[in-house]
Structure formats: C-alpha cells, structure tokens
C-alpha cells in the first residue's frame, strides 16, 4: 500500500474512511507508525478534554473499521492491539513522509560535504513530495496539531537549505521569484530575507537588496519591538560597501551567514 500525508491524506489501493474522526485516527496512527499510541492519547486527540462517556467503546469501533479498511489480501492486520493502545504497521517505502526524511537527510549530508549541486537535487526532490500543507484535509486535535507544526518547520528548514545550496552554485537569478514568495509568507524569517538580499545583490539589484533588509527591520520593530540580528546588520553593511565576500558562498548551512 501507499500512504501520503504531505498534502491530503491518501491511501492506495483502497478507499479512505469518510467519517472525519476515523480519518483523524488513521492520520494519528500513520504519523506514529511502528510505535504504540495509547488509548488515552487517541481519546485526547479525537475528543480533547471533554470526551463522551462512550469514548473508549467508540474508539474500539473506529479501530475495528480501520482494520477492515487496511486489510489487503494476505497482508494481515495492520493495526495491532497492545496493552496500552494501538500500533500501525507500515512497510518500508509505503509512506511519503519517510521518503521526504530520507531525501532531506541525504541532501543535508551532501551539503555538509560541500557537494552543493547534489544537495540542491536531493533537497529539491524531498520538497517535490509535498502537495500542499500536511494532512490538509484532516481535522487536527492537540496531538496532531503539534506534529503538523513540526512538519511545517521541517519543510521550511529543507526549503531554506535547498535555497542555500542553489545560492552556492550560482542560481541567484533563478531564486528571486521563489524567495520573494517565501519572504512574503514568512516576513520575519531572517535567513530567507538574507538569502533574498544576497540573490538580489548578485543580480545587480543593490537597492532592492537593501530595501528587503530594511523591510525586515521595519517589520521586526513594528511587530516585536526588535532589531535584526547582528548577522543581518552585518549583511546590510556588507551590501552598502559592496563587500567582495558577497560574491562568494555566503552561508555555512541554514541560518548562518559568513559576513563580517
């Protein structure tokens, strides 16, 4: 079977349950595949702090229905009952999230080894698995919300590193449109702003590079009463003096600029 969570929840072959809470439970079990999800955690995810009296029996019904949905040929039961809860069994290669993590890990390793072209390829392949926000069509309770926030952060971190790899191999002009969208989406993300400023500078658009940095300064001051970090201030000064270092590799991994 094949399961996807990096976008809408899908399962092939087969048909997903239509009941929202059953889909929610399936998503919870998928994200915890191979480990036990306790009954208490299942109840907390599905009903929050005020579960109905029938919560445990209803949960058992949901699990029984999911077992039927997931049963395929001689594959046996995918959901195992344990003393404290339930565990979903997935085989290698069945979950897009696992593939994302594998590609992202290999891409980061290539980046650390200085193979930026291979890093950009692998990290780009990892990002291509996303078809929208993770589990976009599944209602999220307290446990799923925390996990989805972690997935959003992981997605952004991989994006950040892939952009950095592309900057290292001279793709600054190709990055401009993508970086403008990202900076608009994450207006206080310093590293994305720095990457946009560097890409603009290398494209001969110095005033726009300064404008991007000053817009970040204004946003931080307006929303949080903060100044940009020292590295962003150093980058602004480097742009002003046309520091030759800006024409070289300016990062050493996501979030760190070698600009003094």
What's the structural blueprint in terms of helices and strands?
Elements: E1 2-4, E2 10-12, H1 20-31, E3 37-38, H2 39-47, H3 55-70, E4 79-81, E5 85-88, H4 96-112, H5 116-128, H6 142-168, H7 172-185, H8 190-202, H9 206-224, H10 230-240
Antiparallel strand pairs: 1-2, 3-5, 4-5
Helix pairs in contact: 1-3, 4-5, 4-6, 5-6, 6-8, 7-8, 8-9, 9-10
InterPro entries: AfsR-DnrI-RedD_regulator (IPR051677), BTAD (IPR005158), OmpR/PhoB-type_DNA-bd (IPR001867), Sig_transdc_resp-reg_C-effctor (IPR016032), TPR-like_helical_dom_sf (IPR011990), WH-like_DNA-bd_sf (IPR036388)
GO biological process, one term: regulation of DNA-templated transcription
Pfam families: BTAD, Trans_reg_C
What would the keywords be for this entry?
260 residues, mainly alpha, Arc Repressor Mutant, subunit A, Serine Threonine Protein Phosphatase 5, Tetratricopeptide repeat, three-stranded antiparallel sheet, 5 strands, 6% strand, elongated, disordered C terminus
